[in-house]
Amino acid sequence: MDDFELPLEDRAQAAELLAAKLSGLRGKHPLILAIPRGAVPIGRILADRLQGELDVVLVRKIPSAIDPELAVGAVDEIGNRTLAPYFDRTRTSMEWVEMQTKEQLALMARRRASYGQARPPAAIAGRIVVIVDDGLATGSTMAAALRSVRARQPARLIAAVPVAAPDSLEAIAPLADEIIALATPMNFTSVSRLYRSFPQVEEDEVLRLLRTG
């Protein structure tokens, strides 16, 4: 399963490759926490292959006022916020950050209510936990997820991503017990360009995948 070339075919291929890297967790009932929405299809496959449990960890990026694709930070669902090291107050004001934080918290509250219809939140304390995303660009969202989950005392905390920018991977390394990344291209530009097929994952698919298994 190690033989692959970029771009990856799709999220399913990425998930199978990650499952091979994490095969040592099979039989240990790991908790797979996917960052919605894009990572949930990957998380479903990981949970199935590793005989684990799937849930979500709710974190949202705080977009730049200049470029909405660029994250200047991230916030978790209880309001803990992390700003990126490169955050520039001359280009994105704190007023903008506060406004976006409130919007993202409201969105996460709606999603938690919706996802709760599929299953109650999984217990984290004392478990092996794998946080998965479909790629790591700035690393802000994964950093927020790792900090949020670490506070809930997992036995071991692993970050798993198919593709990552090298500097972002280095930045999150102190926050996890182990990091799994399939590829860290030096010419990283965006996550989507490292997949041939990278469709948007819709809410109904997330709910379906959470109910499966």
TrEMBL record:
Phosphoribosyltransferase domain residues are 12-172
A molecular function annotated in GO for this UniProt entry is: glycosyltransferase activity
Could you tell me which CDD domains the record lists for this protein? PRTases_typeI
Question: Coiled coil located at which positions?
Answer: none
**The protein's name in its UniProt record:** Phosphoribosyltransferase
Q: Which InterPro entries match?
A: PRTase-like (IPR029057), PRTase_dom (IPR000836)
User: Could you tell me the keywords of this UniProt record?
Assistant: Glycosyltransferase, Transferase
Report the Pfam families cross-referenced here.
Pribosyltran (PF00156)
